[in-house]
Amino acid sequence: MRLRTLLVLLAVVPSLAMAAQVTVTADRLLERSGHLRSDVAAGERIGLPLHALMTGMQAERTATVARWSDASASEAALHARRTATDRADAAFRRAAARGGTGSEEADRRILEVLAGLDELGAQRERADSRTGGPDGTLAYYNGLIGQMIRFYQDAFSHTEDGELSQESQVVITLFSAAEMLAQQDASIALAGPSRELPAPRFAEFVNLVGAHRYLYDRWVVPYLPPEDAERYARLIGSGAWQTKTRIENRALSDHKDLATRVRLPRDAAGWATARAAWGPHLEALNSSRIRGLLAHGDAKATALETEVAWLIAVSTGALLAVVGIVAATTRLVLRRLRLLHDRTVRVAETTLPDVVARLREGRPVDDDALPAVRGERDEVGRISDAFARVVAVSVDGHRQLAAERHGFGSFASGIASRTGNLVSRQLALTEELQDAFGGDEELLAGLMKTDQLTVGMRRQIENLLILAGGEVPDPHTEPMRVADLLREAAAEVEEFRRIDRQALDEVSVEARVISQVSHLLAELLDNATRFSPPRSRVVVRAELVADGLSVEVEDRGPRVSPERYAEMNARLHSAPPYAVLAENAHRLGLFVVGHLADQLGATVTLRRSVYGGTSAVVVVPERLLVPTAQEPVRPAASSLAPPPLPSRPRPAPDAPSDTADAAAGTTGTDRADGGAGPVPAPRAARATTDGGARPALPERVPQTHLAEQLRVPRTAADDAGARDTGSGGPDHAEASPEEVADAWADYEDGTRKVEAELRQDQP
């Protein structure tokens, strides 16, 4: 994408985002405005008629219980109250029939109120006939009026405006307090001329007195607007309200407790007169507050619509201003950024990669080739200087890392050389003990086991050198047949008796890579014997293919998932980071195989075997192979052959001997459990082992695969014909401290294992 396009998008995208935000905000504001207007319309259509009905029901309740307690009470007054209630009921039903409120809870509450009104006629008949008691009639009126108050709660509680929500709570509290006063009025009317109330009814009266005073003082008066607050002040300052308060106080303090009833003081007779005086003012306050709430909601809706109009106008102007600024500044920004772009691309694509490559290869770096800090003061110059500083830090880091790798590689090589000297001395001592005590079968078996463990230690030391970036020098001067190479690799493995070798083609490997190929195969064979059942066989077969020589190592190990195979193959085909080496310090075999395969140009692939185990396929390049030369038959060197051992029972029969050895006429069966030695014999002397004859023991060629750093000159007493390979080694500048440390840990694990096994063999 072009930079010009990015700059345009840099301006357009925020503009579109702002436009989208404005659209969403305007839509929300309009939605809130619509809801408010809907609530206002529902309140005017249903809320006001319902308030009139609620007031009528309260007055009818008082007249009904007064008629119940005093048969001489005016029947005309009760009839007038019922007529007013019927008119309010009809008005409410007409309003509810024209539509709901838009709120599911409020609409359900309307249905409950209508259902209660349907029972009004039956309740009146019960009151007139004095069926049951007054408590049932009072419970009906109280429940129906409570449903009406809850309608206001449901209708006004869903508004999103905090101010309107608080104001609606004040209105609902006003209605609740007025209902408590109306219930007090009904309780005093129920007392009648005797001024006696049942004890539970008097307790309810006491609770109503405290509750309505608390509601007015705590939740109503502090939130009333100025005009309504002034109206309430005039109400509570009137004589009628003072009379009400005095009667309540006298009833609480001067009542007389009877057996099951409570007699109110004589002042209670003045309640009805006072109620007639302050009742209309209280109803006017409630009506004014609900109308004020509806008017405020309508004003809020209008304000929201005005806010939307202003929001759209201002946003449109801002968007036009942004477009103008972008059009005016794009060309200037593009010109300045083009210069920065050219300089950055030149450094990133040419200069820095060349410097990093030089450091990686160990070549010196010319400081003049690096970008320099120019100290420019403009924005583009400061960015260029910052980039130059980043390049300088990166180059210094690569240079320091290369120096540390070289130093630690030399340090690791020194440690490996000293350890190798000890291993060489141990191998020499083992050879002397084999020659001296070859007639002792048990001692010779222990020496052979010690020899195998020592060879494994030597291989771990060579692993350390390989991971440090070095190579395993090859002392061979002549090519080696594949069959002999397989035998030599198998002799490096502790469980060599379980390995069956099959060289299907007659070909040889160049002398300069024999040790590397043998080491690679030894690691795979060691891995196969370790992770397969102890009595199972491990087969290694070699044959020519189109790309070179294919060597397959097949075991009967546990099942491995495809994901695990993919992970291990990736570890073989690419150099892992040091963090991976550190996490797998106890299993570095695959890393070593990967390094050797990379040095040889070979490929190693792990896959599932047809037998359920693992099959490792190594393809050695054709350029490392040579035809097998026809050599004259040479007698086996008697000095290298071990002394014969006493006859002992042979283990159970195993797989047949090597195919290639049979074709080439080599000596011995070369079976893993038969213990065939790695030293070839003349073809004419080839013979098979019988049940009564003991197979030859494998014979190690001293220091054949030992790295140059680890080999030491042998004395004349050890081997008069040995080569003095020295103890030096190549410069392993590519070794990392992590790789060397991990290989060293692997070596120490092998050493501890040998010591533990030797302790177990001691009596």
From TrEMBL:
Enzyme Commission code(s) on record: 2.7.13.3
GO cellular component: plasma membrane
Chain ranges passing through the membrane: 308-334
SMART domains: HATPase_c
Keyword field: Kinase, Membrane, Phosphoprotein, Signal, Transferase, Transmembrane, Transmembrane helix
Signal sequence interval, chain numbering: 1-19
Keyword Transmembrane helix tagged: yes
GO process annotations (BP): phosphorelay signal transduction system
Enzyme class: transferase
Pfam families in alphabetical order: HATPase_c, NIT
Protein name according to UniProt: histidine kinase
